[in-house]
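Figure 3 (text version): structure tokens given as input.
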């Protein structure tokens, strides 16, 4: 009987271990490893983080007649952007979620973009894919995610503005890991693809990259405090570029601003 009890306890322990998701594999970047470990519950329970904006979306009324609604859709760079300060009085909606990759954004694209019925969506993503926040992913697969978002938007008559991935810098200790986990050649390659896709696919390319680059080929030091996320000065550079791209997208859709 004792042997049987020990056997059953062993089976229970094995079953409990099997039910727990495995720890993410090390990436070689300690900060990223800690971040990925802290996100296991999200990755397994609500991969796209649909819960983040579900309530806000349910309380949002359809666009009023003549309202040029715009959804800013992205990761932490969008999430921390105070659109009300950069675009006062404009019907611009922030649907950024810190840390997300394009794979996660695809999961919530219907809820957080299509269902809000915007005229334009401004997509800024890709930097966390390059870093590997949700695992290693090739440029080809990132590009496929971008293309799928654009195709979904076009099916619902939503104009697409694809933002370039921002440059990064390594001028401070805090910025080193952000910089090293986001190789500049991959950023440049994805931006070149985005620009070409926009030219061929009827989207608008929003080039933040060139306007935020310094003479060493990195993000200008005064535009971000950590080497990645724009500060107030960074968003001051980005805002008029975004507004111009939105005007272009609306004009191409036959809407006057």
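Below: residues designed for each position.
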């Amino acid at each position: 009987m004792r042997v049987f009890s020990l056997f059953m306890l062993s089976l229970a322990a094995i079953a409990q271990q099997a039910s727990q998701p495995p720890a993410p594999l090390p990436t070689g970047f300690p900060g990223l490893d800690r971040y990925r470990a802290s996100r296991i519950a999200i990755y397994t329970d609500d991969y796209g983080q649909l819960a983040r904006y579900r309530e806000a979306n349910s309380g949002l009324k359809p666009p009023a007649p003549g309202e040029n609604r715009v959804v800013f859709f992205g990761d932490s760079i969008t999430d921390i952007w105070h659109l009300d300060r950069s675009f006062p009085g404009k019907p611009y909606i922030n649907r950024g979620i810190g840390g997300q990759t394009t794979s996660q954004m695809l999961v919530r694209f219907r809820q957080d973009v299509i269902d809000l019925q915007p005229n334009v969506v401004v997509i800024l993503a890709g930097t966390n894919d390059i870093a590997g926040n949700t695992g290693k992913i090739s440029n080809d697969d990132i590009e496929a995610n971008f293309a799928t978002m654009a195709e979904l938007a076009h099916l619902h008559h939503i104009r697409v503005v694809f933002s370039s991935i921002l440059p990064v810098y390594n001028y401070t200790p805090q910025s080193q890991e952000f910089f090293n986990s986001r190789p500049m050649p991959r950023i440049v390659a994805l931006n070149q693809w985005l620009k070409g896709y926009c030219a061929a696919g009827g989207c608008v390319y929003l080039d933040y990259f060139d306007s935020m680059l310094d003479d060493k080929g990195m993000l200008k030091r005064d535009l971000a405090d950590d080497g990645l996320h724009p500060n107030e000065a960074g968003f001051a550079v980005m805002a008029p570029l975004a507004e111009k791209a939105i005007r272009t997208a609306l004009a191409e859709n036959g809407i006057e601003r």
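The first helix runs from residue 2 to 19.
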